[in-house]
UniProtKB/TrEMBL annotation:
<feature type="transmembrane region" description="Helical">
    <location>
        <begin position="6"/>
        <end position="27"/>
    </location>
</feature>
<feature type="transmembrane region" description="Helical">
    <location>
        <begin position="152"/>
        <end position="169"/>
    </location>
</feature>
<feature type="transmembrane region" description="Helical">
    <location>
        <begin position="283"/>
        <end position="307"/>
    </location>
</feature>
<dbReference type="GO" id="GO:0016020">
    <property type="term" value="C:membrane"/>
</dbReference>
<feature type="transmembrane region" description="Helical">
    <location>
        <begin position="236"/>
        <end position="263"/>
    </location>
</feature>
<feature type="domain" description="Major facilitator superfamily (MFS) profile">
    <location>
        <begin position="13"/>
        <end position="435"/>
    </location>
</feature>
<keyword id="KW-0812">Transmembrane</keyword>
<dbReference type="InterPro" id="IPR050382">
    <property type="entry name" value="MFS_Na/Anion_cotransporter"/>
</dbReference>
<dbReference type="GO" id="GO:0006820">
    <property type="term" value="P:monoatomic anion transport"/>
</dbReference>
<feature type="transmembrane region" description="Helical">
    <location>
        <begin position="377"/>
        <end position="397"/>
    </location>
</feature>
<dbReference type="InterPro" id="IPR036259">
    <property type="entry name" value="MFS_trans_sf"/>
</dbReference>
<feature type="transmembrane region" description="Helical">
    <location>
        <begin position="92"/>
        <end position="111"/>
    </location>
</feature>
<feature type="transmembrane region" description="Helical">
    <location>
        <begin position="319"/>
        <end position="338"/>
    </location>
</feature>
<feature type="transmembrane region" description="Helical">
    <location>
        <begin position="344"/>
        <end position="365"/>
    </location>
</feature>
<feature type="transmembrane region" description="Helical">
    <location>
        <begin position="181"/>
        <end position="202"/>
    </location>
</feature>
<dbReference type="InterPro" id="IPR020846">
    <property type="entry name" value="MFS_dom"/>
</dbReference>
<keyword id="KW-0472">Membrane</keyword>
């Protein structure tokens, strides 16, 4: 590949990490827009367009189909990291993407059968999504020199880019071609992603056919003995008795609860409470994601600058938690005081995810701090518990928003705000950025012949 001789191979891997999170959140976020075009009106004054057949599903089943993906996420997140470390992140990312693309396409013929079949297919999509973030963390741990892990972690903000583009583009596709094409179009993006995986990614730098020898030596020398190719079982007992990791699990629960609430609840809130049409709801719902993406890269630059100037890593992690969790939580609590102001509601949604862009410097990068060898496993475990927020949130919305009033939704957002603040305080008190002793891979002793 002479045409890219002057571009480091790890730059292409970082690009694919960004693209991987883009694809992951594209599948997470598009359904919350598509479902609005698939079901009957929930309020007497709700405007409906002709975007294809609509189904008379109950409000409860609508929320269940939204939360189905999160059930899948939680089900497979726990072993996902170990799967990535044993099979290799390349295979996990490739084949999980193919399965979730096929499952999404099958939702179109499944919808007339009933919401239960849609629930099952979205559950399968969730299972595949659960495998991907641990695989990406595993890939970063193997490719990123320690001095560049902040930049690699910023590439995980491709999730915001995925949500930002998917919501408005899905709405335009739905209005132009019908809601069924919002599912079919996902397959095209997955095909491009798989092509990029074949060209630019390998499980380890040494396995990549086009890597320059100097770059390979630089990566391996920088990583030292922190990264090992030995395939061993993760040290689960040491992990679950590690106070810094338990603090990270709590922080990730708070982070994902609010993030999933934004993905699934914002389009409903904008359409059913603020009475925006489908396209306007999708575009406004994308604004917070765009702000999160921009702020994520800004915070990443500031983080690297602080580290270069000698600020201890742990203070950077905990300092940015003031933004990613505390400031985000305060933004959500402010919903209790805005009355019926739709403008203030939009400002607070944008501020919430803008502050949360700092999560790239807290919960997203912290697994690499604690254990580069088992970063995929750590991410899978913390997503297992964090994913609970994905189905707890829709249940809370279902119970509290029967009439879809601003006051009811203010309570929903305030609950999310309190979860953010409490989880952030826990991480600031008990979290760590130090390499843990259990990062070292120890081979199991060979059996003694009898």
């Amino acid at each position: 590949m002479a045409w890219c001789h002057y571009i480091p191979s790890r730059a292409f891997v970082a690009m694919m990490v960004f693209w991987g999170t883009f694809v992951n959140y594209m599948f997470r976020s598009h359904f919350s827009i598509s479902i609005l075009a698939m079901v009957q009106a929930r309020k007497a004054n709700e405007t409906l367009g002709d975007f294809g057949p609509r189904y008379n599903w109950t409000y409860e089943w609508e929320q269940r189909t939204i939360s189905a993906m999160f059930y899948g996420l939680s089900t497979l997140s726990l072993p996902a990291g170990m799967v990535s470390e044993l099979l290799g992140p390349w295979h996990v990312l490739m084949w999980s993407s193919v399965v979730m693309a096929v499952s999404s396409c099958l939702i179109v013929p499944a919808a007339p059968v009933g919401p239960l079949l849609v629930f099952i297919l979205r559950f399968i999509v969730g299972l595949m999504l659960a495998l991907q973030y641990p695989a990406l963390q595993c890939l970063i741990g193997r490719w990123a020199p320690p001095s560049e892990k902040g930049r690699f972690a910023s590439c995980l903000m491709g999730n915001a880019f995925g949500s930002m583009l998917t919501m408005p583009i899905s709405s335009m596709i739905i209005e132009k071609f019908g809601w069924n094409w919002s599912f079919y179009s996902l397959s095209f993006v997955v095909a491009l992603f798989c092509l990029g995986m074949c060209l630019f990614v390998a499980d380890y730098p040494r396995d990549y056919r086009w890597i320059d020898k100097e770059e390979l030596q630089f990566i391996e020398k920088a990583q030292g003995n922190q990264v090992s190719r030995e395939r061993v079982a993760p040290p689960y007992i040491a992990m679950f008795t590690s106070v810094p990791f338990l603090a990270l699990i709590i922080a990730q629960f708070g982070n994902l609860y609010g993030l999933f609430m934004s993905l699934t609840a914002s389009p409903q809130f904008l359409k059913r409470v603020l009475n925006f049409d489908l396209k306007k709801s999708a575009f406004i719902a994308a604004l917070p994601q765009m702000t999160r993406l921009i702020c994520g890269f800004v915070f990443g630059y500031i983080n690297d600058l602080l580290l270069k100037r000698g600020v201890p890593k742990k203070w950077c992690r905990k300092g940015f938690t003031l933004l990613s969790h505390i400031a985000t939580g305060i933004s959500l609590l402010c919903f209790l005081g805005i009355g019926q102001s739709s403008d203030m509601a939009i400002v607070l949604l944008v501020a919430m995810l803008g502050f949360n862009g700092a999560a790239a410097e807290t919960t997203l990068i912290n697994p690499q701090d604690l254990s580069p060898n088992f970063a995929g496993t750590l991410h899978g475990v913390m997503n297992f518990f964090g994913g609970w927020g994905g189905f707890i949130g829709p249940m809370i919305i279902e119970v509290l928003t029967k009439d879809n009033t601003m006051d009811q939704w203010a309570i929903v957002f305030a609950i999310g705000g309190m979860i953010y603040i409490v989880s952030g305080v826990v991480f600031m008190c008990f979290g760590s950025a130090d390499l843990q002793r259990w990062n070292e891979k120890t081979k199991l002793p060979e059996p003694v012949p009898v």
